[in-house]
Amino acid sequence: MNAGIPSTRTARLSVIEQLLGQYVVKSQQQLVSLLAEEGIQVTQATLSRDLDDLRASKVRTQEGDFAYAVPTQSPLEKVMLDEITREQDRRNSAAHVAGVGAGAGAGTRASQHVDIFTPVARRHTQLAKVIGSLITKVVCAQNLVVIHTPPGAAQYVASAIDKYPIDHVAGTIAGDDTVMMITTDNAAAQEKMDWLMSMVGAER
User: Fold this and answer.
1) pTM of the model
2) How far is 56 from 198, CA to CA, in rounded Å?
3) CA–CA separation, 129 vs 3, rounded Å?
4) Is residue 199 part of a domain?
5) Are 160 and 131 in contact (CB under 8 A)?
6) How far apart are CA 98 and CA 95, in angstroms?
7) Per residue of the chain (204 residues), what is the pLDDT tens digit?
8) In which element (H, E) is residue 7 found?
9) Strand-pair partners of 60
10) 56 lies in which domain range?
11) In sequence order, what are the residues at sequence separation of 6 or more whose Cβ sits closer than 8 angstroms to the Cβ of residue 42?
């Protein structure tokens, strides 16, 4: 089994939330070390902002010490909804501008435009803009690619993937925070995992 964690804010927040649930984290320095073990390098200033975004606070443990904890209702749901809302706003704005441009150009000769991107490249870019910031982890197991997302985002990600024809992908199954991409064979699964990671990299 192979796995990858994107270098995105959403992925980092997801890992921080998991670490706070798995360990008794008493200091930010301890959390920095735990993140480093996961392959995530972060500055103290960035970590402080991340903890604020997660609404993490120090609570008293049974031993009488104080450790970081996050609310039961995951703040990542708000992060995910914000990302989806921003993407929908961008798409609506682009559609509006295109409509205005078409109306203004009626009866006049449109300026020539050469599209330097292939249909495949355009599809990759569009899909990256839609879901790139919502993928927190990708795991490859035989002919399956398991995509982890913030809570509530899996069906949105699966729907976005299903709208684009992708070679060697039979389909997707989505839960609440996990998408299973079914490919035709093991080699295709590894290829799609690398493809997804490159897509997330484009949205860093």
Assistant:
1) 0.56
2) 31
3) 22
4) no
5) yes
6) 5
7) 556 777 788 888 888 988 988 889 999 999 999 999 988 999 989 999 999 988 888 888 778 889 998 876 454 555 555 555 555 566 566 555 555 555 555 444 433 433 434 555 566 677 777 777 788 899 999 999 999 988 888 888 888 888 877 889 999 999 999 999 999 999 999 999 998 888 776 454
8) none
9) 66
10) 7-69
11) 12, 32, 35, 50
Coil, strand, or helix at residue 81? helix
Q: Is residue 129 part of a domain?
A: no
Interhelix angle 119-131/154-162, nearest 10 degrees:
170
At 171, which amino acid appears? G
Total number of domains in the chain: 1
Instruction: Evaluate whether residue 51 is within a structural domain.
Output: yes
Question: Token pair of 129, please?
Answer: 């803009």
- Confirm whether 117 is domain-assigned: no
The enclosing domain of 13 has a CATH number of 1.10.10.10
Cα–Cα distance between 184 and 143 in angstroms, integer? 6
Least Cα distance to 124 among 58, 57, 194 occurs for 194
